[in-house]
Amino acid sequence: MNTHTFLKSTFLLCLVGIFTACGGTQKQSSTDESDSLNTHIIPKEQWLDTDGNPINAHGGGLLYHEGTYYWYGEYKVGKTYLPEWATWECYRTDVTGVSCYSSTDLLNWKFEGVVLKAVPDDENHDLHPSKVLERPKVVYNAKTKKFVMWAHVESADYSKAAAGVAISDTPNGEFTYLGSFRPNETMSRDQTVFVDDDGKAYQFSSSEHNQTMHINELADDYLKPTGRYVRRFVDQAREAPAVFKKDGKYYMLSSGCTGWDPNRAELAVADSIMGEWTVLGDPCRGVDADKTFYGQSTFVQPIAGKENAYVAMFDMWKKTDLADSRYIWLPIVVQNDTLTIPYMEKWNIEEVFGK
Question: Does residue 101 form part of some domain?
Answer without folding.
Answer: yes
